[in-house]
Amino acid sequence: MSGIIGTFNIKESATALFYGLHALQHRGQEGAGIMVSNGTELSGMKNFGIAQKVFDEQALSTLSGIHGIGHVHYPTKERRIIQNIQPFLFKHSLYDFSVCHHGEIVNSNQLRLYLEESGTIFQSDSDSELFAHLVNHHRKDSVSDSIKEALNYVDGGFAFLYLTSDALYAIRDRHGLATLSLGKLDGGYVMASETCAIDILGGEVIRDIQPGEILKISHDGVISSHYAMDTEEKISAMEFIYYSRPDSDIAGINVHNARKETGKTLARESHVEADIVVGIPDSSLSAAYGYAEETGVPFEMGLIKNRYVGRTFIM
Q1: What does pTM read for this prediction?
Q2: Alpha carbon separation from 230 to 108, 149, 173, 233 (Å, rounded)
């Protein structure tokens, strides 16, 4: 799960990232982080809690930059330690960079052993740190080539954002399991796990990052390349069923409409005699609308969720 967002050439980038993270808050609430670049150096802030708790107006004012990446954290295999909150910042003699991701590298244990045997020391349990070390270990003449080389060793479903002082890279796994969309905003660009984060900023959604694609955005423009040609889009069904906000679009399909269709299909395949249809807040409300619409059984509110407790399943 988790949610990521990146911006390039956007004034007050930290503020834009904050509002984008707020739109993606449903994807994780254990921690939040923002990393920005002013064109020459990187700086950031991260902590436990939701974005609104981690970043107030004063905190955002200290993060001066025109490019950046942000992350809301939902832990899978990681321990609850501050070292696992993203984005990560790495200092290197050639250039500094920052990384964040959502999804999972399934062969991470093998890759950790491989890197540790080569002298790498890890500070966290995160796949983002693993990926960063892997890119550095397989350094080529360009950042894009280094990323491509590292991805040859990686398997899983993931989307990464990789930020340098003057460029932003977006990477999506070869299976297209993890979602990542590109949009235009005020003469710059924004990328996010869900289109709702682009919409809330007033951006225009352009397209999804393609499976196996590496998209580089710099002042030279947008350059697309692929690290894998044997690709096939197999978007995680859980994005449509559960993870995503209903106002997001995935592969050009609105999530609310997709969930309505599942409700209609359920009504045709497994119709039962009933007086009312009740959705379980919030993910199944759209499906319940579809079920009610197909059967003519009235939709009613039967369960009310407290709107001030965040994601109840996470808690």
Answers
A1: 0.93
A2: 21, 16, 11, 10
